[in-house]
TrEMBL record:
Component of ribonuclease P, a ribonucleoprotein complex that generates mature tRNA molecules by cleaving their 5'-ends. SMART domains: POP4. It is found in: Nucleus, Nucleolus. GO terms for biological process: rRNA processing; tRNA 5'-leader removal. Belongs to the eukaryotic/archaeal RNase P protein component 1 family. It comes from the Eukaryota. GO terms for cellular component: nucleolus; ribonuclease MRP complex; ribonuclease P complex. This is Ribonuclease P protein subunit p29. The keyword Nucleus applies. The keyword Hydrolase does not apply.
Length: 200
């Protein structure tokens, strides 16, 4: 009998700890009916939000001069290997630029391609002083190209109101800058529409 009482006390205290929200009468009722369902109460864990690492703002990038090319680095010969890499990249992208390739297919791929390293020429412009500028594209921004010429001069040429041409393995492509006002990363996802005539 003493062991029985000890067992009852033990079970009662155990149930009290396991089900703290239950009153003594409810626990006693469960014991008399010999039907016990133990419940486990989880402590609510507060999820810690991960802090997103923020990059530099446009103002900070300008202050740090992240995109400026030092004068001693502004030499055409330095970037010729970059142009060779770009040519190989375009050949791989267009599957070799074969003579039987369809021009509009190559054109569509070039419109989405990365142009850093391409040699371009300004063929038409509303500003005559830009016409004839030829060089390697060093940087492409939303509204401008930064081009290094053979004379080792860094030219900042706006895309707006300018037509650029680039030639590779006999294939000449024209870029209408006014329809090209996008960053390089945005162009890769954009769908360009074929248009019959395009003005500056």
């Amino acid at each position: 009998p003493q062991d029985s009482e000890k067992a009852k006390t033990l079970v009662h205290s155990f149930l009290k700890r396991s089900m703290p929200k239950m009153r003594d009468e409810a626990i006693q009722d469960l014991l008399t009916r010999k039907a016990v369902v133990l419940e486990h109460y989880h402590k609510k864990q507060t999820k810690q939000k991960r802090k997103k690492t923020k990059g530099f703002t446009a103002k900070q990038r300008r202050e740090l001069r992240l995109f400026e090319i030092e004068p001693e680095q502004q030499r055409y010969a330095i970037f010729l290997p970059l142009h060779e890499l770009w040519k190989q990249y375009i050949r791989d992208l267009c599957h070799g630029l074969k003579p039987d390739a369809q021009p509009h297919m190559i054109q569509s791929k070039l419109l989405k391609a990365d142009l850093h390293g391409a040699i371009v020429t300004v063929t038409k412009s509303k500003c005559p002083s830009y016409v004839g500028i030829t060089g390697i594209i060093l940087q492409e921004f939303k509204h401008i190209f930064k081009i290094i010429t053979k004379e080792d001069k860094l030219k900042v040429v706006p895309k707006l109101n300018n037509v650029f041409s680039l030639e590779l393995d006999g294939f000449i492509s024209y870029i209408y800058g006014s329809k090209f006002l996008l960053r390089a990363s945005e162009r890769s996802a954009k769908k360009f529409k074929l248009k019959g005539t395009i003005d500056l």
